[in-house]
Each structure stands twice: as structure tokens, then as C-alpha cells.
Amino acid sequence: MSESLQVLAEPGGATASSVPAVRRGVLRRLVRNPLGLVAAVVLLVVVGGAIAAPWLTTHAPEAADLRNAFGPAGPGHPLGLDSAGRDIWSRLLFGARNTLGGAVLALVVAMALGIPAGLVAGYAGRWFDAVASWVVNLLMALPAMIVLLAARAILGPTVWALMIILGVLAAPSFFRLVRGIVVNVRHELYVDSARVSGLPPWRIIGRHVLVVVRAPIIIQISLVAGVALGLQAGLEFIGVGSSSDLPTWGGMLNEGFQFVQRDRTLMLWPGLALGLTSAALVLLGAALRDVLEDRGTDPVVRRRDRAAQRAVAPAVLDGKAERSPLLSIRSLAVSYALPDGSQREVVHDVDLDVHPGEIVGLVGESGSGKTQTAFSALGILPYGGRVSRGSILVDGQEVVGLPTASWRRLRSQVVSYVPQEPMSNLDPSFTVGHQLVEPIRAATGASRAQARARALDLLRSVEIEDPERTFRAYPHEISGGMAQRVLLAGAMSCDPRLLIADEPTTALDVTVQAEVLEVLRRLQQERGLGVLLVTHSLGVVADLCDRVVVMQDGRIVESGPVDLVLTAPREPYTRRLLAAVLDEGPPPAVAAGRAGQGER
Amino acid sequence: MLLYIARRAAAGVLLLVVISLLTFVLLSLSGQDVGRTLLGLNASDQQVAAKNAQLGVDRAVLAQYVDWLSGAVRGDLGTSWFTSEDVGTAIGNRLPVTLSIMVGVTLVTGVLAFGLGVWAGVRRGAVDRFVQVFGVAGYALPGFLVTLVLVLVFAVELGWFPAIGYIPLTDSVGGWLSTITLPIIALSIGSVAGMAQQVRSSVIEVMRQDYVRTLVSRGLPMRSVLFRHVLRNASAPALTVLGLQFVGLLGGAVLVEQIFGLPGIGAMTVAYTMRGDVPIIMGLLMVSVVGVVVINLLVDIAIGLLNPKARVA
Q1: Residue from the list A274, A412, A429 with its beta carbon closest to the beta carbon of B145
Q2: SS3 string of chain B?
């Protein structure tokens, strides 16, 4: 039920990074959004009717005519008469004044308290934040309806005072929204630099902070207004508000409910007014959110495309060299569905082979399509992405359009994945040990004890000092380097023959990088793995790889044995990549290669 | 974990004490002359003073509060000024009605919201659009308006359920069900709508996490990824919302009990607050805040169990 006061504009959404400033043309875009337009029109009509009530009605809302009680609609009484012979149309319009006025009062109080407090608490923090947050927790533990009823006991039947209290109770929803965003913004670099450059706090708040909280506040206003309206009407409905003569929608509903057997229309009109207004407020909030936050709508993944995923015919591949028995990619294209329903191809015509016992480096700058290519070979493209053309053989099996069950067999027996970010790739809610044991058991059906022994062996094999302790630890209790070793151990758990590593060292310190690469090299040699190593570091390539494939803008621009490509690149792009590395100091292999050239 | 629970519980108790003190002081500010109200205009000033002394309202507010508090911790919430009922007993008689509804709503909400939310988050497509539209609609309409429509359709027009009244569980199971079904449906619509939205967006959020992709790449079956890893990580924010909704649900119960003529503590609140019966008001507020504190404590414990990081924070 919508009596919950603690509405949040977007559960967990609206972070500083995703909230652009309110832009010009918001109104125009809002009008173009059909729901937003309808909602805005309904609200305008209701507010206009409330303001113009004296000119739109011919009878006073209190004027009773008992002889004509329950009178039908007719001239002068467009909606008929109520149980006391009062004009329903007039009561509806004047009632809008009281009902909307009450909601607006609550809203203004909530904003006046919640927004400044949230700004200060979020920006300055310290004791004010502690105190304010505690008060907010207290307010949030109070059931609004019961507090309002208790307050009525003290204050008497005055709905305006109750609306002020409702405003206080609703203030936390603004406070929490604003504080949360401001805390995020405060740690942004541009705010730091503004502070360092000596801008006074109020200027920073005005310049940088208000801009960010403006849009979420506007959305929040429409949501809180809807809730306040509902509560106001609810109070009037149970008759704790004003005297029965004063027209309000809640009061009219109450009257209608009492006489429901006699005349349904008594409930119809105020119910319709309340429902429409309330719905319009929330819909307006939803539309505003779409417009203000520029939220990317979900990609439209059509059924046809999903089906197409399965139907992609492995291209007839003539003469493009012999295909590797381990991993062989031909004419691969990867496409993403866009919100407007169209498709964008991000990887075009990629051919690539990894032979057993071979390390192939896949290099390119960010956005060159190297990770997309790697994900295709694992069948783990994100939602909306699919292989739109080409053929991928893993262990001699065509995997384009492969059903999930067969994928599972490949993943737990042949191919395995080492991700880039060590910390975000471990589930924070489970121990390291659990995350190793679970796949082992799923793949081999081993007993718990067997799987545990195997997991400890794996941890030892990636040179973790105290495997028992790491086994018991939660991800947040171990370091990044340790986490990457754990992931490497996890990748080894199924005795794979093909390892696909996506920038396995990028997120690590330089010294830890070297150690992890050393482990990777040793495992590869011991087990004769084929490795596809995605990286942007030519140093790593020179150090580790046998062959290298260079990608740019979703295409392969150059490939060949490492010594050849790194010493005598044919493509200008590869030369640029190399030059960028050389600026940072040459990797040993490249330096050696050059020395060799010099001697000749 | 124990320390974490202890800290949460202590915070809850502190909250109770502060709220009770604030309420007590605020209620005593009303300046109503209880003795005069009770005895009427014909009573002499002496009689009124004696009545006030008997009720203890002639003393300093803080002294009265300390008395009330020392009684309350022993489970004695005092006596109603107007009906001389024992407050604890009066509330205890009506609590089962409200509890029946609250427990029912929480169960319905938990099951439906998780079911719909997970389904929408995983399958997307048409189910997803339905959950989103339903979420907006459930939010958009004031709960009591929805309740009125339900009464009109299912009780008045179709006559499937009684429009008003309550039959205790101890009298007849069928009767009990028939009287609480419609109230539970009425209250559940909004809370299912709100929480399904939350579950949906948490599920989508978690599905995008790197570790889900990694788990899939390890050859785990989709259902263990979904039901063990995704659900566990997605439920913490959803449970937080459930805790918040409980507070709103108490307010909703007031209206729903009033509409259905159920003799619960919601209807009792409406009746007794009209007269300014301070001991009863204090008792009712405390019972509802205790309910909120307990629910939040349970939510905190559940989150602590689900998410090892929360225990440290």
C-alpha cells in the first residue's frame, strides 16, 4: 500500500555519475513522452479546476438542500446532489483546494527540512551527519498514520497542522536522497579540485552539488506528493480531519461509502478525482525520471534475434588455413541490440586460432573488440549481445548457437576463464573455498571432502602461502593479488585445455603482476595449455606469448609470431602501439630483439 | 555476528526510549484537563483535582514519564483514563486481528514479490513490462482507494466475502479466512508492487556483476547461479525495502481495519485517539514501534547472515 512514506526516487539508482544536469528542453521532451503529457494535462486540469472553483460552480459547496438529497444530475448540478443535498460538482472542485492544499503543505515542509539537512549532512558530514541520520532513523521507525492520529488527540481536528507533521515525517525521504547523492559527489575529482582551489563551500554547493541533486529532487517531489495526497485523503476518509462540512475528497469518499448501497456515484466522483490525480503524479515522476536522467532504455532483444542466435549457419570457410583443434574462430561478428531495436556490430570478420600449448596475445586499445571476441569464445556475452555471424570451434565443436547444457560441458571440461578485475569477480557473499568447491562438485560430482581437498591443492598450485586460511576467507578479507591467484586456481579447477584470460594483471600492482604472470606461465607449461591472453600491454605479450593478434575498431589489423610483429610491424597502428610502450621503457624481449637487429 | 546483533538491538531499545519520551512529553503539552473532561462541567474543582491526583497527571511530566517507563518495562502499560481497561489487555485483545493481517500480507508480499521480481529480472520481456507497469500502478493509487474498490466489487457486488466483521481463528478457520482474505489482498497490492520492483532491479543489477559471469564460465548450472548467488546477493536490498514497507503497512492497516470493521489495533487507534486517552495512545504507539523495531532487527540479522560484509560495518 502506498502509505509508505519512505519512497526513493530510484532504489539504488541515481548516483552522481549517472545524473546529468537538468537540461534545457526538458519540457519539450516531457511533452513528447506520451505518459508524461497525459499526466501533466491531468494535473493542470485538476489544479486549474481547484483555482477556478468559484467561477466554475453555481452553488456553494456547503449549501445543503435536504429535500433534494441524492438528487440526480441536472441543470446547475452537473454531477447531482449528495446525501445532504449539496452540489457534488462544487464540493469536488472546492474539495480539490483542501485536498491538494494539504498535500502541498506537507510537501513544502518535507522539502524545507529534508533538502537543506541532506545537503549539509552529505557535504560537511561530521557530527551533523551523525545527528541528522539518527533523527532520520527515528522518524522512519514511526508509523505515519498512527503518529498523525496521536497528534490529532493533542491538536484537535485541524488537518493543516496534521499536514505539517506529515511533512516532518516525510522529510527523511528527501534527506536520504540528497545526502546519498551529495556524499557521492563530494568525492568526485572536480569537487575536490574546486575545494583545493579555495572556492567557498556555498559556491561549491551551488555550482556543483545542486546541479546534480536537482533532477532526482524533482522526481522525488512528484512521488512524495502522491503519497501525501493519499495520506491526506486517508485521514479525511476516516474522519479525523476537519468537520464534515468542509469539502475534501477523502470526506466525500467517506460519505459515499456510508451510502454505498443507495448511490454508487457518490463514491465514483471523488474516487476518480483522487485516483487520477494520484496516478498522474506518479506517472509524471516516472516520465520525468526517463527524461531527466536520460536513462538508457533496455536493449530490445527480439525473439527473432534470439532465434537467429541459434540459426547462424557456420560460414562456409574456404581455404582460410587449417583450423586449430583447440580454438578456431572464423569470420566472427558480434552485434549488440540497441534500445531502438536496431543492431550494432562491434566485432567484424575476426579469424583467430589457438593451438594446444600455445599462448596467443590479443592486443588492442579499449573498445577494439578484443574482450568481445574472448567472451564469444566462452559464450558469456552480456545481455543484448550475440554472435551475429561466423563460426567458433572449441575442441572441434561448433559453439555458435550451442544450447546451454552443451556449453556447461565445455566450460567444465575444456575451456576456462580468468577475468580482469580480481575483486569484482568473486561473489562477496560466499567464502573463497565455497566458490572453488561449488564448480568442482558441479563438474565432477565429487564429494564435499574430495572437492575441498582438490580446492586446497589448487590454492597451493597458485602459490598461496596459507591455503586453509584463504579457503575460509571471504573475498573482502583477501588482497587483490591473492584474489587473482584464487581466480586462476578456479580457472584450473576443471583441468582445462584452453584458458581465456581477459587482462589478468591489469588491475594489479606491478610487482604482483609479475608474480601472477609467472604462475600463469608455469601452469601453462606444466599442463600444456592453450591460452588466449587478452591484454593491452605489449610488454606482457613480448614476455609471454608465442603469437600476437592486433585488433583495432573490431577488426584484426595484424597477426603473426611475436618476434616478427614486435620487431617489424607492418601496420601503422601496431607501430603506434609499440611506440607507446617504448615511451614507458622497452620490455625486455623487445629490447633484446632490437639489440639483435643492431648486431646484424 | 553476535556483536552485530547486540549493537542493532541496543540501537532499537534506545530508539524506543527516545520515541516514548518524546511522545509522552508532547502528549502532556496538549494542556487538556483530564479530570474535568472525565467528570464533566458539574464536578467541583476539588473533585477534579482529586481525580487528577488519582490519575497522577498533577505531577511533573518527567516524574510521570519515569513512572510510566518503569511500569512499561515490567509489561504494565497503565490503565485507560476513560474506560479503566488495562491498556495491555485491551491491546492484547485486538492484536491477533492486526497480526493475522500483517503476517498474511508479509507472506503474500514475500512470495509474490520475489517470484515476480526474479522472473522479470531474469526473463525480461513481457513479464518485465508487466511488473514495471504494475509497480507504477500499485504506487500510483492510494491504498484505501484500492481497498474501497475491492470492497465494492467483491463484497458488495459479487458477495464473495463479507464486507465487514471479523471471525476469530479459534471460532472457525473458514470464517477467519473469509474475513481476512480481502483485507490482506487490499494491503498486499501496494507492497507487492513496490517490492517486486525492488527485487527486479536488484536481480538485474546482480546479473550484471562480473562474478556472475565468472561463475557461469566455470560451468555452474544456471539454476545454482540464479538461486544461490544471484538471489542471495539481490535479497539484501529487497529485505531493506520490506522493512521500510512494514512501517507503511501499519498505517495501511488503520485504514483497512476501519473500512472492513475489523476490531484490530488500527481501528482501536482511530477510536481512542479521538478522546485523547494518553495511556492508550502511548501503548498503541509503543506496540507499533516495537513491531517496527523487531522487524528491522530481523531484517538486519537476515542481511547480516546473507552478506558477510554487513556484519563488519
Answers
A1: A274
A2: CHHHHHHHHHHHHHHHHHHHHHHHHHHHCCCCCHHHHHHCCCCCHHHHHHHHHHHCCCCCHHHHHHHHHHHHHCCCCCECCCCCCEHHHHHHHHHHHHHHHHHHHHHHHHHHHHHHHHHHHHHCHHHHHHHHHHHHHHHHCCHHHHHHHHHHHHHHHCCCCCCCCCCCCCCCHHHHHHHHHHHHHHHHHHHHHHHHHHHHHHHHHHHCCHHHHHHHHCCCCHHHHHHHHHHHHHHHHHHHHHHHHHHHHHHHHHHHHHHHCCCCHHHHHHHHHCCCCHHHHHHHHHHHHHHHHHHHHHHHHHHHHHCHHHHHC
- The more confidently predicted of residues A296 and A397 is A397
Query: Using one digit for the tens of pLDDT, what is the confidence trace for A581-598?
Result: 665 544 444 444 433 343
**From the list B27, B274, B293, which residue is nearest A141 (CB)?**
B293
Contact yes or no for B209 and A438 at CB 8 A: no
Measured between CA atoms, the residue of chain A closest to residue B132 is A286
* Nine-digit cell string for B93: 485483545
Instruction: Find the CB nearest B219 among A13, A237, A442.
Output: A442
**Do residues A470 and A482 lie in contact, with contact meaning Cβ atoms separated by under 8 Å?**
yes
Are the beta carbons of B259 and A257 separated by less than 8 Å? Answer: yes
- Distance, in Å, from the CA atom of B291 to the CA atom of B285, rounded to the nearest integer, reads 10
Using CB atoms, pick whichever of A138, A412, A494 lies closest to residue B15: A138
Higher per-residue pLDDT: B72 or A314: B72
Which residues in A lie closer than 8 A to residue B124 (C-beta atoms)? 298, 301, 383
The answer to whether the CB atoms of B208 and A383 lie below 8 A apart is yes
CATH of domain A3-13+42-292: 1.10.3720.10
What distance in Å separates residue A420's CA from the closest CA in chain B? 9
Q: What is the pLDDT of residues A330-380, one digit of tens each?
A: 888 898 888 777 888 888 888 888 988 899 999 888 888 888 898 988 888
Q: Which pTM value belongs to this model?
A: 0.78
Chains A and B form CB pairs within 8 A to the count of 274
Residue boundaries of the structural domains of chain A? 3-13+42-292
Interchain proximity A3–B309, CB inside 8 Å: no
